[in-house]
Amino acid sequence: MFNVMLQMALLILAGIAWQRFAPAHISPTSHRRALTDLVFYILLPALVIDVLWQAPLDSDTFSIQLTAVSRLASAALMMWLSLKVFHYLLPIPRAQQGALMLAATFPNATYLGLPVTSEVLGDWAQEMVLKFDLFACTPILLSIGIMMGQAYGHSETRTHPFKELLKVPPLWALVIACILNLTHTPQPEMIGHTLHTLAGGVVPLMLIALGMSIRWDTFKIALLPKLLPVCIIGLLIAPLIALTVAQSLGLGGHTLTAITLLSAMPTMVFGVIICERYHLDGALYAAAVFSTTLLSILTLPIWFQFLSR
Q1: pLDDT band at residue 132, thresholds of 50, 70 and 90?
Q2: CATH at 22
Q3: Position 158 confidence tier, pLDDT thresholds 50, 70, 90
Q4: Cα separation, 309 vs 307, whole angstroms
Q5: Neighbour-count burial of 179, counting CB atoms closer than 10 A to its CB (0-12 exposed, 13-18 middle, 19+ buried)
Q6: What would the mean pLDDT of 209-229 be, rounded to a whole number?
Q7: How many domains does the chain have?
Q8: CA 74, 76, 78, 81 torsion: positive or negative?
Q9: Structural domain boundaries, residue 59
Q10: What confidence tier does 117 reach under pLDDT thresholds 50, 70, 90?
Q11: pTM of the model
Q12: In this structure, what DSSP letter does residue 218 have?
């Protein structure tokens, strides 16, 4: 597992290097947006349809969804309580509170979870990742996550969460895949081959895009007291709660391993967009992404060893 994390780290470092040394005729931001748009609008929807078209939609799917929801809810509650304690020791502005709430609540289940679990457990884990993320994490991020941003920050225009959900191609792909699955529509060989070919580019491009999104320059030692609860909750406590919930719901074996690893992923990158839209502290959120991603190189192998026993 540690060797796998080092391999992932090399691709992330490639993204960081590309962000720094990319050709000057296009800005680094434009490079990143082009890459993430390619994954978000074409490759990831192809992967969703390819995997979930013929995947079983059974009681385990609901258990995975419930486990993911419990992971998000417990992390949000613990971070909220931590901020209440911090208020008496170290007052934190509302913009920073909102950034920390988002950072602790939402794990990077797709952009890092997909390549890590696929490499460690096999391609079958892609099904677990997509069910964990698209049946719970992404819809909650684009609904309750946006409400968090509105509550802690401010914006010139108010956004309706439902409209945001309609703008997410992987969710549309999820609907299409579920319809094809539940109607038992056979998958033509040519379409299956095309979807599988497109899906093959998701993992490496996701890791490179993740590296291009990490802002290592935002990390400062003075931020450690504020980032420490995010790291402890997101990387240790919330995954332990998810593990307990998953076991109580009857999940076990490699499925339990995959779901727990996804729950232990570092802070997701997409939250930066919510921070920017609602004027939360984007630099603090970016520092949380950097610190949790760096620490996950150590914590994820520990989780994997623990679960392997």
Answers
A1: very high
A2: 1.20.1530
A3: low
A4: 5
A5: exposed
A6: 81
A7: 1
A8: negative
A9: 2-308
A10: very high
A11: 0.89
A12: G
